[in-house]
Amino acid sequence: MSRFFAANYDYESGSSSSEEDLLSSSEDELLTSSGGEGEESDDSLFQEDSESESDVDSDDSDGKPYGPDWFKKPEFRKGGPSGGNKFLKGASYSDSDESDDEGKKVVKSAKEKLLDDMQTVYNKVESAEMTNDWVTILSEFDIISRLLIRAQQQNYGTPNIFVKVLAQFEDAVNATSQQEIKSKAASRAYNTTKQRVKKLARENEQLLEKFRENPEAFDKEPSAELDTSITEGSVPLFGKKSINLSSVASASSEAGFFSALRIVIDSRGKKNVDYSALIKTLEELMEIAKTPYETIMAYLNLVPIRFDVSANLSYQPVDQWKASYQDIMKLLSILEENIEKYQLSELAPKNDFIEDEPEDDEHGVKHILGSIFSFVERLDDEFNKSLLNTDPHSSDYLVRLRDEQSVYNLILRTQLYLEATLPEECRESHLARPFVKRLDHIYYKSTKLISIMESNAWKSVPSTSSSNFIPYKGDADEQYVTELVQTLAESLRQQKSGGLRKRAILYQVYFTAFNNNFGAAKEMLINSKIQSHINNSDPSLQILFNRVVVQLGLAAFKLCLIEDCHQVLNELLASSHLREILGQQTLQRISANVGSSSTADEREQLCLPYHKHINLDLIDLVFMTCSLLIEVPQMTAFYSGIKVKRVPYSQKSIRRALEHYDKSSFQGPPESLRDHVLHAAKSMQKGNWAKSIEFLRSVPTWSLLPNADYVLDNLAERVQVESLKTYFFTYKRFYSNISIERFSELFNLPEARVLEVLESVINEYDINAKLNEEKTFVTVEKGEEITKLEEVALKLNKEVKIAKERLNPSSARR
């Protein structure tokens, strides 16, 4: 039967042994029957009407059958030149007098094709051996090795033709000496072929001995098949197929282990692969591994397959993540135990044949190609993904967050291993990735939390491990933490990558600002000049820069530097998308806004786990409080006729809130955070500083500040001073002399402090007022100040102009 019509045809394995030919036996009978005009058809059903039908058909000039039932005509069933056997014979049929046997096309099974490919290798090697072309011989050896793997995957065992080809390679190597080869390329190919043939011959020693005893009898024997029965230990790899890899791996020699491992490696990435079966097989292989090299190779393939299982998921499930973590820890332990003999390195040369251990270097160390830190990075990425996909307000998030310490321990341990194994000339450049990861886990924490993390991390590493970059003396105090961040950042600044340098600077600035060193952090950021070209950086760096700016403003506020805080935060808070520019939106919201065109990695770059967020209510409260202390006195001075410098304000400034509040028809009691600050501003305008402080202290968000009591105490004094300024600007037009003692009683300030504030205000705004000789009164001279009635009239005139422009926009333009 043709495979086109076979509903259950297996495309992976090709045609089975029972369907080696495309045509069935009944079809063969039809094709081999003679199509001559004088012969009668074997089908007796149509013989009665054959004569009449031939008379009808004779009207056709070319003798071809026609009509709606033309396929029922005897001419179609016959094998003549005008008959319908072309349909049965396919494209190979021609109108010439060639025989049917020559025109018939034979389709081979997958096993036959594979054996033919091996025979082709045998013929090519035989030709290349005559010309001493060892480059071709090496190439054909690689081909025959891949064909053997394919045979084992397809459950064909070890074909006899493979043993024959292997004996041919062995004879060719033994019949040639190194001195006979003149070309360098051929000499290298000869040496490589000699080593690989020796290895493969040792693995198939019994079959080679059997072949050499009697080659003719060996060819007639069936191939050595694998045990394909599904018994205990056998695992399905490709759809319905199953291979008992554990039985292969349990061979007495190391050949069985690597044969099974090679099958697993080649199976990875193919369609319909059962990854759980691959994992189970690798776990069984590690149990029977006899050397550290075998165990290392098994782990190097097990960890990526564990990650492949969840490649199509939003994040790796917790149980699989913990299994990957344990595998990486075990691999690292084996590498640390055998560090004097085996070392895993990204700088090691590629080894095409996993069966061959790498050659020793001058120190007797074998370098295996691989990257232990790539596994750690992937593990950390999956950890962040799981946090992003977990409800941050649930207990599951807190439970999951506990694993951060385990990830940090692994990062530190991997860094120490790389320090011990990397060459000194390229050590610092290759340690950049662990340094970035360490900073990424600690830059947003306080020194106390970092001290706890560092102490626990150093307890998890072997006692013999040490770091040349950041020596640990057994105590992670505040000085150690500061030096740690500084050393890591300085090392990253030496890298060629501009992204690493920027990220290192921003990490250090954030840490410095978060730990209340505003002056050093501000100077560091200005000297770096990152702000001049941050718009051309990638989104993750822009988000980090915005976070640094916010943290810088909060650091200034913690030190009660109100003007600096307002200046830093004013431009950033002018944006209406503060949550987005700080990377504090959810993954679902990012996916809806960005669209499906962006990849999952790009969307995750725009989002930070919840425990890294900066509280948005705290940012709003700090900025509005700064705006209250700066803008309320200036607004009062402006409306009293004093020329003041206009301060730019954002959407969240207290000035805009007051304008909206004055226009509203109903003013209720304060409910939200913004309402409390607004009522504090209204109280300040009336000179009621005590009520203003009461409104500010009643906001519960202040508890998020680590030094909330210190900040609120200093804030109260600043509110008293600004209330004094506001009262002076408001009521100076109504008095000619104002008592200093009275001001001191009203605002609960010492008289010396009152005198200092009034003198600074008079000099700054050039007010027509002066103190008497005893400095007990302030004498206000009448000048160009407007009265309260004139102030109201000016406001009313301004509103009239705005109304006219809205009613007659065309006349206003003219």
UniProtKB/TrEMBL annotation:
<dbReference type="InterPro" id="IPR008905">
    <property type="entry name" value="EIF3C_N_dom"/>
</dbReference>
<feature type="compositionally biased region" description="Acidic residues">
    <location>
        <begin position="18"/>
        <end position="30"/>
    </location>
</feature>
<feature type="region of interest" description="Disordered">
    <location>
        <begin position="1"/>
        <end position="105"/>
    </location>
</feature>
<keyword id="KW-0648">Protein biosynthesis</keyword>
<keyword id="KW-0396">Initiation factor</keyword>
<dbReference type="InterPro" id="IPR000717">
    <property type="entry name" value="PCI_dom"/>
</dbReference>
<keyword id="KW-0963">Cytoplasm</keyword>
<comment type="similarity">
    <text>Belongs to the eIF-3 subunit C family.</text>
</comment>
<comment type="function">
    <text>Component of the eukaryotic translation initiation factor 3 (eIF-3) complex, which is involved in protein synthesis of a specialized repertoire of mRNAs and, together with other initiation factors, stimulates binding of mRNA and methionyl-tRNAi to the 40S ribosome. The eIF-3 complex specifically targets and initiates translation of a subset of mRNAs involved in cell proliferation.</text>
</comment>
<dbReference type="GO" id="GO:0031369">
    <property type="term" value="F:translation initiation factor binding"/>
</dbReference>
<dbReference type="GO" id="GO:0001732">
    <property type="term" value="P:formation of cytoplasmic translation initiation complex"/>
</dbReference>
<dbReference type="GO" id="GO:0005852">
    <property type="term" value="C:eukaryotic translation initiation factor 3 complex"/>
</dbReference>
<dbReference type="InterPro" id="IPR036390">
    <property type="entry name" value="WH_DNA-bd_sf"/>
</dbReference>
<protein>
    <recommendedName>
        <fullName>Eukaryotic translation initiation factor 3 subunit C</fullName>
    </recommendedName>
</protein>
<feature type="domain" description="PCI">
    <location>
        <begin position="610"/>
        <end position="785"/>
    </location>
</feature>
<feature type="compositionally biased region" description="Acidic residues">
    <location>
        <begin position="37"/>
        <end position="60"/>
    </location>
</feature>
<dbReference type="GO" id="GO:0003723">
    <property type="term" value="F:RNA binding"/>
</dbReference>
<dbReference type="GO" id="GO:0008541">
    <property type="term" value="C:proteasome regulatory particle, lid subcomplex"/>
</dbReference>
<comment type="subunit">
    <text>Component of the eukaryotic translation initiation factor 3 (eIF-3) complex.</text>
</comment>
<dbReference type="GO" id="GO:0033290">
    <property type="term" value="C:eukaryotic 48S preinitiation complex"/>
</dbReference>
<dbReference type="Pfam" id="PF05470">
    <property type="entry name" value="eIF-3c_N"/>
</dbReference>
<dbReference type="Pfam" id="PF01399">
    <property type="entry name" value="PCI"/>
</dbReference>
<dbReference type="GO" id="GO:0016282">
    <property type="term" value="C:eukaryotic 43S preinitiation complex"/>
</dbReference>
<dbReference type="GO" id="GO:0003743">
    <property type="term" value="F:translation initiation factor activity"/>
</dbReference>
<dbReference type="InterPro" id="IPR027516">
    <property type="entry name" value="EIF3C"/>
</dbReference>
